[in-house]
Amino acid sequence: MTAEGRRERGIAAYARIFDMPEREVLAAFAERVGPVFTEEALHAAGGAAWSHPALTGRDRSVAIITALVAQGVSGDRLRTHLRLAREHGLGDDALAALMTLLAGYIGYPRASQAMEIVHALSEQEHT
């Protein structure tokens, strides 16, 4: 695949992840992280890791959420990937089970912080 092809696939991936039109991805990312980082991120997202047939969207969601929670990432970044996880079939019970499993491996402070976000999103969705 060409570099331009990876870039275009990256734009499409981020548009899907962040629920925005493809035409808005470059400006939105450049505003947040600058043009150089944006280009690197687009090429990475357009690579095989995001489209390899051995991983389902659900598999990717579990892996990404696990990595984010392990690093203590919360807020909008975690919420974005939790939303995607729901789209990929992970419901409240599965996300709660994942956070409970993670607590034993990465510690209760980070897992419980993430569980609070899962719970808040669930409450918003059901009201």
From TrEMBL:
GO function term, MF aspect, one: peroxiredoxin activity
Q: Where is the Carboxymuconolactone decarboxylase-like domain?
A: 43-119
Tell me which InterPro entries the record gives: 4CMD/NDH-1_regulator, AhpD-like, CMD-like
Top-level taxon in the UniProt lineage? Bacteria
Pfam families from the UniProt entry: CMD
Name the PANTHER family for this protein: 4-CARBOXYMUCONOLACTONE DECARBOXYLASE FAMILY PROTEIN, CARBOXYMUCONOLACTONE DECARBOXYLASE-LIKE DOMAIN-CONTAINING PROTEIN
Q: What is this protein called?
A: Carboxymuconolactone decarboxylase-like domain-containing protein
